[in-house]
Design a protein that fits this description.
The protein is mainly β. The protein contains 1 helix and 11 strands, in the order E-E-E-H-E-E-E-E-E-E-E-E.
């Protein structure tokens, strides 16, 4: 089983910044994944895609975070990142990292809580 572990969640003021990391246990599998992604979820709502990075390095962002969030990866460290700037109260959620071989997420982390104070 592939293990993904998020870190970096916490409390941030509106307008502030926070950086999330996700370490993947299998280095070779991480390097061959076709899709890396960040999702977020609040109680009673479906998980929503925040950002994804496809094989080749192309990134896509949800309209709600575009221009504020940046996703990246370090293949050698088997780690993906989400840099969140200009944060809003609406960004409060549990953030999950995920990855898949093709176009959908197959493996999920346990999530990390992000709170933006009003």
């Amino acid at each position: 089983q592939v293990l993904l572990v998020e870190s970096g969640g916490g409390l941030v003021e509106p307008g502030g910044s926070l950086s999330l990391s996700c370490v993947v246990s299998d280095t070779e599998r991480f390097a061959r994944m076709g899709l890396l992604a960040w999702y977020r979820q609040t109680p009673g709502k479906q998980r929503e895609m925040v950002a994804h990075l496809t094989d080749g390095g192309a990134t896509n962002y949800a309209d709600t975070v575009k221009g504020r969030f940046t996703m990246s990866r370090d293949i050698a460290k088997s780690t993906m990142y989400l840099q969140m700037n200009s944060m809003k109260p609406e960004d409060k959620a549990v953030y999950f990292c995920g990855m898949g071989r093709w176009l959908s997420v197959e493996f999920w982390g346990q999530g990390t809580q992000v709170t933006v104070a009003s």
